[in-house]
Amino acid sequence: MNREQRKRITQNITNLKERLVDLDPIIDRLIEKDVFSLEHREKIEHVSPATPQKKFNEFIQLLLASPEPNTYFVFLEALTEERHHYMAERLQNTVISGTSPVRHSSSYSRERARSRGTSAMSNRSYDHSGASGPVGVSYGGPPAMEITMSRLLTEFSGKLSSNISSSLQKMRAEDKQEMEKRMDDKLASFKKEWNEEKSSLLRMNESAITNLQASVEKLRRSNEEYNRLSEKYDKLKEMQKEMRERENERWQRLSQANAERAQLKIANDDLKTQIQKLQEKVATLECENSRLKEKDCQSQIDLEHLAIENKTLMQELEEKDKERLALKKEVEMAYSRISDVVKFQREKSELDDVTYKSALEKQSEKLNEIFEVVNNLNSKERPRLASRNLYIGGSGIVPKTPNKQGEKK
């Protein structure tokens, strides 16, 4: 696409934006002619925000940036095939400074002009050659020939220019008449299509009005039905509210009864636990009572044994007292005899014998110790055993009388 073609599109961009509301068929035509690709379609579809104006702007940018040389003519063909004749003609008739309007028949007009110019040139050359042939005039050398050739070329170029200009004017007039005829035909077809479309639109409007009236009537009936159902719904809602309140009251009474039942169950469990503990305590007390009774019987038996043993011990104690007294007398008698013997030995011992004296002193000390022990035993009073009372569940203990020191075994 050259600069002039881009200029034609940009000068008509407002009309193109107003009429090309649906770009999909145009894009399909361009894809079929290898002007666009599927990537171009995705780029147009995924433009953000996806508004028709944004999509058209993206489409125009891709179209103007296409490197294909026939993009402009493919675009015109797509407009014509999609019945956008007015836009195609407008693009062709757009006047750019220094150029003429582009038409579909431009190539045909150029061919006609080229063929007419060629025929005119051949005719003129034949006339000039014929006019110079039969005269029989001598040119008189090379300078005269050059002058004659220049004159002939000047005449030929002037006549050729006039013929070309006249043929171009004639072609322009013919093209203008052809264009006017085509425009009249297109206007007639457009009027016919517009009348058909207008009649179809009128029929569609009439059917739409009929459908709208039916819809309005249906809506009115629906509104009445809605009002009736709304009243019924309100009544049902009130009934449901009353039933819910009664259900809530019943549920509250039931919850209260369940709570009381749970409390009574807990109290019953506590009473059962207390009864079980009391039964266990009674069983324990019965066992304790039986054990105390057994212990009482055993205590009575032990008391009898202790009384017998106490009596036996008293008898043994009396016998031991008698033996102690007898032993005491014997010890006193032996002490007196030993004392007399020691005294006699002291008197008879030699004064110089130190060993003998020390032995006597040691014996005297031992005798003194024995005598002190005996005196201590005599000085102490022997305690009497006191009888104890025995109680149920208790036991009496009879203390044993310790043996006096110094008694003989």
Notable characteristics:
disordered C terminus; mainly alpha; 409 residues; 0% strand
Number of strands: 0
Order of helices and strands: HHHHHHHHHH
Work out the radius of gyration: 79 Å
Rounded average pLDDT: 77
Distance between the termini: 156 Å
User: What would you call the shape?
Assistant: elongated
As residue ranges, the low-confidence spans are 99-140, 381-409
Number of helices: 10
Largest sheet: none
Percent range for helical residues?
A: over 70%
- Structural classification: mainly alpha
Strand content is: under 5%
Structure overview:
It contains ten helices and no strands. By secondary structure, it is mainly alpha-helical. Helix 4 (38-45) packs antiparallel against helix 5 and helix 9 (142-348) packs across helix 10 (354-379). The longest helix is centred in the middle third of the chain and has 207 residues, at 142-348.
SSE inventory with pairings:
Blueprint: H1 3-11, H2 13-19, H3 24-32, H4 38-45, H5 52-64, H6 71-81, H7 85-93, H8 106-132, H9 142-348, H10 354-379
Helix pairs in contact: 3-6, 4-5, 6-7, 8-9, 9-10
Q: How do you describe this structure in short?
A:
This protein is mainly alpha-helical. It is built from 10 helices and no strands. Helices cover about 80% and strands about 0% of the residues.
